[in-house]
Write a structure and sequence with these properties.
This protein has about 750 residues and is of the alpha+beta class. Helices cover about 35% and strands about 25% of the residues. Strand 2 and strand 3 form a beta hairpin. The chain is globular and about 85 Å long.
């Protein structure tokens, strides 16, 4: 009689697991039979959007992947790898943990941090820095406050205990994220390029180990959960949220680093989305081999776990390691030393199939290639259409907006809006100094800068995306996101190298949401080609929306860009703070009569419908090239990009670190509110000491790039067109404390 474990799955069960009717038919065709329930569960997670990218891979393949520093390209291993010289490489990646954080913000965010760090050290790199990009709903909502507090505490508690500094990030608020926040975590590590660990299984007969923590029922089918809408019933999916243990992860890191110094490893992969299922199938397919896996040998936290529960569990702090035969005791001894499990659960085969056993009974037999991205997993070309709002937004005219009489009042309100105000309330929960590598903790810069010990070099890194711009115009908005990331690297003294991305969008079956996704890919491609910053990999997160009474409300399209850059000379780290009274203030780039999609327009005037701000990719590139030259020739002593909040906010941020101020004159040909608060792109503010003024002007004249003398640095007062805007201490008090007041009220 057939075992209950091997009874054929029904279509109803398949659809309950997230598969479509036609996909269930495809599985039957691949297997030549009807799958059992365990096999159907395996396909459901591996063919989920989260694992297979089935609705995005066609477009992702169009992104540029080649660049001057590439060592490991997108899709080849767990994360991208770029050459940083001296025999070293930088491994870096960004991923989302949105849906788990929407339900259980503390564990959702914490395990996002843990997962992205495992992607880094699984390749043999020691993580050296983290960033995060967070999106929340209306800050006045009680649920938003709960989410902000839970997410930031989860990131802080896990990252601080794990011992990797958080060197930067961003936080953005908009009503579109009320139900579905975005939690995007970035990590970067340093590796000896001769010691890269592959994620591919090789060598039939080699043993397969599971190492790290025990397997429990937390996170079961988390990948499938991440591939559907957040609804009023999503609380029922709470078991899909993983539970993290940063101290266990620290032990796993050190054990892995020790193991990486031996010759025992054939291949290794983190158990993230889809757990054992994903790591066994992807490693097998990657190496063109198969595996026999004995699930009853997996250390478990609960008794009598079913095969599909063991396979689909996303319990944290676990990895799969293929070991050279004969090196088993070496592996066990290292993990025993660190008080971690290291159990031999299977063997590599030459079958090309992954076979799962429970007490010697085969409960699953699937061809590995049929399950993975770029292999047999389905790839869809979705319809897309331009939404009606796009043309409506273009009709915006600045003349429709009356300029306020009291711009000082506007300026001080702007400094207190959640999207402009200091994120100190958030980042004070993070340890930015652990590891003694961070070079920008007390030297504020547009990007996080991390020392590469033993060299004269440093790494610069940033995460950027103004999702309001992307919503207004996905193609231009995403070009701006890449350009702003490059600008932040350049303003810190670095040379942009490569990017990773986290593409957060609504339902791919919604043609208007998919149009936003397609536009973002086109914009990203154009900007990455211009800046020679190839895409090394990343993450697509669809289904970020709320469904209430049958109406889908997607979040702002948010293609978060994580970028790294190189500083060949760490002594040339550039900071954004004014250094001394009397220095001249210039803006490099064009000043434009534009307030489109600015925080000023959206929050002060309440006008949401406007196009993306002024942007010219060629002029942006030329401006950044000039800024690199100014820093290299030591002609400037402070550099800060003009971004959210416009020029006024930029100057306030440059003034606050040393309690200095500014005295500037606006351009009479441009509306004063546009000059001060507009967010036209391609501009950087710089400070020049009086004794370098002549050389600076000569350099700029030769460059052909626009530049304007604004005024000079003061001892602490803020002057605009001879009008006293108050003292920087007053502005700083409001700016520093506004977010905390919003959250604690």
């Amino acid at each position: 009689m057939e075992s209950t474990l091997n009874q054929e799955a029904t279509l109803e069960q398949a659809m309950d697991l997230g598969l479509r009717e036609d996909e269930f038919g495809m599985i039957k065709e691949i297997l030549g039979r009807t799958p059992n329930f365990t096999e159907t569960a395996v396909y459901s997670v591996m063919w989920s959007e989260h694992c297979s990218y089935k609705n995005s891979i066609v477009w992702l393949k169009k992104l540029p992947k080649d660049g001057p520093h590439m060592l490991v390209k997108a899709g080849e291993e767990n994360a991208g790898l770029v050459d940083i010289g001296d025999g070293l490489g930088c491994v870096f990646k960004i991923e989302s943990h949105n849906h788990p954080s929407a339900l259980e913000p503390y564990q959702g965010a914490a395990t996002g941090v843990g997962g992205i760090n495992r992607d880094i050290f699984t390749m043999g790199a020691r993580p050296v820095a983290q960033l995060n990009s967070l999106r929340f709903g209306n800050i006045e909502n009680a649920r938003t406050k709960w989410l902000v507090k839970g997410v930031t505490k989860g990131i802080g508690d896990y990252g601080n205990a794990f011992g990797i500094p958080i060197v930067g990030g961003e936080v953005f608020f908009d009503d579109s994220y009320n139900t579905n926040p975005l939690v995007n975590a970035f990590s970067a590590g340093i590796i000896d390029t001769k010691k890269i660990i592959s994620a591919k299984a090789k060598g039939p007969g080699n043993p397969v180990f599971i190492v790290g923590s025990a397997t429990g029922k937390d996170g079961i089918a988390g990948a499938a959960f991440a591939s559907k809408d957040i609804t009023e019933d999503s609380a029922n999916d709470l078991p899909s949220v993983q539970v993290g243990d940063p101290f266990m992860e620290k032990l796993l890191l050190e054990a892995t680093m020790e193991l990486s110094q031996t010759d025992a490893i054939v291949g290794m992969q983190d158990m993230g989305a889809a757990g054992i299922t994903c790591s066994t199938c992807e490693m097998s397919a990657g190496g063109g081999v198969g595996m026999d896996i004995h699930l009853d040998r997996v250390p478990t936290r609960q008794e009598n776990m079913l095969p599909y529960e063991i396979l689909l569990s996303e319990s944290q702090e676990r990895m799969l390691v293929v070991v050279h035969k004969g090196k088993e005791e070496l592996v066990k001894n290292i993990f025993t030393k660190w008080d971690l499990h290291a159990e031999e659960i299977g063997v590599v085969t030459d079958s090309g199939r992954v076979r799962y056993f429970m007490h010697d009974e085969m409960v699953g037999n699937v061809p590995a290639e049929s399950l993975v991205l770029g292999g047999g997993a389905p790839q869809y070309v979705r319809d897309y259409k331009e939404p009606a709002y796009y043309e409506e937004y273009k009709k915006f005219d600045i003349e429709q907006v009356k300029q306020p009489e009291d711009l000082k009042e506007v300026a001080f309100k702007l400094l207190q809006y959640p999207n402009i105000a200091s994120k100190r309330w958030v980042y004070e929960q993070y340890d930015s100094m652990v590891g003694t590598r961070t070079m920008t903790t007390n030297r504020p810069s547009d990007a996080g800068v991390v020392n590469i010990k033993g060299t004269n070099k440093a790494l610069a890194m940033t995460v950027d995306c103004n999702s309001r711009y992307v919503n207004a115009d996905p193609e231009i908005g995403t070009m701006i996101a890449v350009s702003e990331a490059a600008r932040n690297i350049v303003c810190s003294g670095g040379e942009p190298s490569a990017i990773t991305n986290c593409l957060n969008f609504g339902n791919p079956y919604n043609p208007e949401s998919y149009w936003q996704f397609v536009g973002a890919i086109k914009g990203m491609s154009a900007a990455c080609l211009k800046f020679e910053t190839p895409v090394t990999g990343g993450n697509v997160s669809f289904y970020n929306q709320t469904v209430t009474n049958g109406v889908e409300v997607p979040v702002f399209p948010t293609p978060t860009i994580g970028m790294i850059g190189m500083l060949e000379d760490k002594d040339q780290v550039m900071t954004l703070d004014f250094k001394q009274k009397g220095d001249l203030i210039f803006v490099i780039g064009e000043n434009v009569n534009d307030i489109a999609s600015s925080e000023y327009l959206a929050s002060y005037h309440g006008i949401k419908a406007s196009p993306a701000p002024y942007f010219d990719l060629d002029k942006e590139y030329a401006m950044q090239h000039v800024v690199k030259g100014l820093i290299r020739h030591e002609l400037v002593n402070a550099v800060h990009d003009v971004a959210d909040g416009g020029l006024f906010v930029t100057l306030v941020e440059m003034s606050m670190p040393r309690d200095l101020g500014f005295d500037i004159v606006t351009d009479s040909e441009i509306r004063e509110d546009a000059f001060l608060f507009g967010e036209a792109q391609g501009r950087v503010a710089v400070a020049v000491s009086e004794d370098r003024e002549e050389e600076f002007i000569e350099f700029m004249m030769e460059s052909g790039v626009n530049f304007t003398l604004l005024g000079h640095v003061t001892k602490g007062k803020m002057m605009v067109d001879d009008q006293h805007y108050g003292f920087i201490a007053e502005a700083k008090a409001l700016y520093d404390n506004a977010l905390g007041k919003h959250l604690e009220n």
